Amino acid sequence: MRTAVIGGGWAGIAAAVALADAGHDITVFEMAPQLGGRARSVAGQDAAWPYDNGQHILIGAYRDSLALMRRLGIAPEQALARLPLALPYPGEPGLRLPPGPPLISFTRGVLSHRGWPLSARLGLLSAATGWLARGFRCAPGLSVAELCVGLAAAVKRDLVEPLCIAALNTPAAEASAQVFLRVLKDALFGGAGSADLLLPRQPLSELLAGPAAAWLGPRLRLGCRVREIAPSWRVDGETFDGVVLACTSVEAARLTADLAPDWSAAAGALDFEPIITVYLNSPGSRLPTPMLALRDGPDAPAQFVFDQGQLGGAPGRFAFVVSGAAPWVERGGCAEAVLAQARRELAWTTPPTVDRLLAEKRATFACTPGLARPPARIAPGLFAAGDYVQGPYPATLEGAVRAGLAAAQGMGTGAKGAASGSPTKTP
Ligand SMILES: Cc1cc2nc3c(=O)[nH]c(=O)nc-3n(C[C@H](O)[C@H](O)[C@H](O)COP(=O)(O)OP(=O)(O)OC[C@H]3O[C@@H](n4cnc5c(N)ncnc54)[C@H](O)[C@@H]3O)c2cc1C
């Protein structure tokens, strides 16, 4: 089969590799000058130290992403720093999961949390036991805030809210409890190491996009924006036997407006949440750990900070992540507010200065309760792949990879991915 893959983010790369492995004659169309999509690097003044479009975290449960990296010759053990799940705050050790079987590790981690009263720790363990007993399922219309209403305020502030904003990029009051529970299930109960944090040690351009471009070779057309898909199947006038639409939901909606109006309307109806990344410089400074959680608030935009120098990046560069950043996009002044937050909350060897702000207005879809996401199958021979298509995960690299594998499977490759279960099933 001659198969076109439109879009070269992680979903398009996953689909292209699975299709090629199954013997398809593939062509990947990518409108940008590089692969990677939202997980890309952006050049800086010093070519040796590019900026990432946004700090990305993977977790041990991202099995299909890790398998894709291996397939492309990347060793995740070298490309990613693996850290046991810990949420330290400045001056506070926070929650730390010790090594061991997930259930025991979670219980021991919660019980040994010094910052929470015993009643708060027992309340969390009791709630988690309830979630486990119900198979990590809940009513689709429930929000994360409603799910966790009975938990102590400190547990919500130090654990639920930062995990929710990091994983779903949606504030707990507006975020889908069903999707949140699925992430918790895979992270905490998905087998040894599933909850580990995997932090890139390389710029995103080298983590997957560069090796993927080399692997695809002449099958990749960069700087090539697809303008039109016509039935059975003509991509800008060129005939293919099938098409995987791995572009953004906005572009997918545009390209299918006449071909599949209902599907196009569902893709076009998604709302988005922005993420802002503020890079600060402070030569000689170092965080106690490569990643720290921060308490956000009206004058404190960032929820996490990453020490790039400890992760193989530019020494003295710190990435502050502002997820659920809609209020800051509207109000402005985010870089100055992050600088003030950094000066207040962290110890610096040299006073930090603002290096760069990168704002991605459509970073992820807003992962709200009961959200209807478009299915992978659009028509026979036409499948969508992207972090937004129906699936158990929020907008993440793993969600994108699974969607790519599901689209390839729909085209008849038999690709199932390393993880169990069909990505098109709701959780
Ligand atoms: C700032 C930020 C931080 C994030 N942090 C994390 C994180 O920590 N962990 C995590 O797991 N996820 C994170 N994400 C989410 C993750 O980046 C996305 O879920 C994932 O990259 C989506 O991949 P995709 O292939 O579905 O879509 P995209 O990456 O958007 O790829 C779509 C591609 O299609 C191309 N395209 C669009 N239209 C056309 C056309 N007409 N013709 C040809 N090409 C076209 C685009 O140029 C793009 O390359 C973050 C995202 C952002 C923005």
Ends: how far apart? 32 Å
Counted beta strands: 21
Mean pLDDT: 94
* Strands side by side in the biggest sheet: 10-2-1-14-21-20
According to CATH, the fold-level topology of the largest domain is FAD/NAD(P)-binding domain
Please compute the radius of gyration using only Cα atoms. Answer: 21 Å
Question: How many helical stretches?
Answer: 14
CATH architecture of the largest domain: 3-Layer(bba) Sandwich
The shape is globular
Topology:
Blueprint: E1 2-6, H1 10-21, E2 25-30, E3 41-42, E4 51-52, E5 58-59, H2 63-71, H3 76-79, E6 80-83, E7 86-89, E8 92-96, H4 102-111, H5 118-133, H6 144-147, H7 153-168, H8 177-189, E9 197-200, H9 204-216, E10 220-222, E11 229-230, E12 234-235, E13 238-239, E14 242-245, H10 249-255, H11 261-268, E15 272-281, E16 291-293, E17 304-307, E18 317-322, H12 326-331, H13 334-345, E19 353-365, E20 377-379, E21 382-384, H14 397-410
Parallel strand pairs: 1-2, 1-14, 2-10, 14-21
Antiparallel strand pairs: 3-4, 5-9, 6-9, 7-8, 11-12, 12-13, 15-18, 15-19, 16-17, 17-18, 20-21
Helix pairs in contact: 1-9, 1-14, 2-14, 10-11
